[in-house]
Amino acid sequence: MTQAPDPRFNRLLLVDDEPGIRKMMSLDLSSDGYQVFTAEDGTKGLEVFDREKPCLVLTDLKMPGIDGIEVLRRIKEKSPETEVIVITGHGDMDLAIRSLQLDASDFITKPVNPRALQVALERAQKRLALKAELRAYTRELEQRVADATEKVVASERLAAVGQTVSSLVHSIKNMLSGLKGGAYLIKEGRSQQSEKMMDHGMEMLQRNLRRVQNLVYDLLTLAKPRQPKLEEVPTAELMREAVDLLAPLAQDKEVELSLEVPKEAQSVHADRKAILDSLINLICNAVDAAATRSGGWVKVGLINGREEVAFEVEDNGPGLDEEAESRIFEGFYSSKGAAGTGLGLMVTQKIAREHGGRVDYDNRPGQGVTFWLVLPKRLPKEEEPSHLREIW
What we know:
- The protein has 392 residues and is of the alpha/beta class.
- The chain has 3 domains: 7-112, Response regulator (Rossmann fold); 159-223; 231-376, Histidine kinase-like ATPase, C-terminal domain (Heat Shock Protein 90, 2-Layer Sandwich).
- The protein has helices at 19-31, 42-52, 68-78, 93-101, 114-191, 195-223, 235-252, 272-290, 322-326, 344-354; strands spanning 11-15, 35-39, 56-60, 83-88, 106-109, 231-234, 256-259, 267-270, 297-304, 308-315, 358-364, 368-376.
- The protein has a 5-stranded parallel beta sheet, with helices on both faces. The chain has a 5-stranded mixed beta sheet with strand order 7-9-10-12-11. Strands 6-8 form a two-stranded antiparallel ribbon.
- α1 links the parallel β1 (11-15) and β2.
- α7 (235-252) packs parallel to α8 and α8 runs antiparallel to α10.
- The protein is elongated.
């Protein structure tokens, strides 16, 4: 008794140019439970295959026009999963071997022995079932990996959000303490009629309000991409403005702040406010670093390249330790402790990249750091920003 085919794989195409063989085999296969489609040559066989998408194909090797080898090759190109059994004569063993090389699942010889055909079909169905199980297992494995990845990403995202919130809370808490301290000094100064105490309290209020303002600006800058409002900006003018703004800070911290503008200083196509803020960030960090030692100094200069300019800020502070250097552009990390939010360099780097530039640095532990804000002189139209050019 012939074993019934798996219902998943019972669609079968029979291609043979002999009407008697087609009719006889079609009847036998149909009675065994197969849904049989027939074709009298290779051309018709490929048309039926495209239309019906059978899982199994039985094809004679020697046929006029497109032979069985070509039928096998084209079916495997279209559907590698389809199992093809070739039917050959006793003298066509070379063709039979070639068909196996083209990934035919089996071959049987004429006249077709029912038992041999049954074994070949059962073997082909087992291969189809194995492939189906493998596909199902692969899909399940891919889904498990996707689920696990989603959980990991969600966990990392939650951890990142928690770290960000924690850092923000810490920074804001310090600023609020400064605001409360300033308000307390003003209140006490009024009750004691002490102008000195009130002035000190007002200075604390103003300083911490500036910190709040800077934090909000940095967060807004980092929150979303922004298109720079480009204009021709004289580099010398920009550098002088940044240095003039920070001269009182440097003087207060007893740091020598100097500016050296080369005669050939040119204009740069940039967002004036964004680049000015970036320069202020770099100079302010340098002043803070230089203030940690006696005789601290900060030098601001400019390097003119063929296609780029580099604003240079050098200090003789302690340099960056190993941890600070490894986290230099990381948000919410600051070597200043409670006095900084760690966003300055991150914001500066983002602004530079929005201009198609970059931030480079040279760390000299124990001797200081030099930062370069590198910008293209002009961003060509239709060109993507690039931070891969060299300035020298």
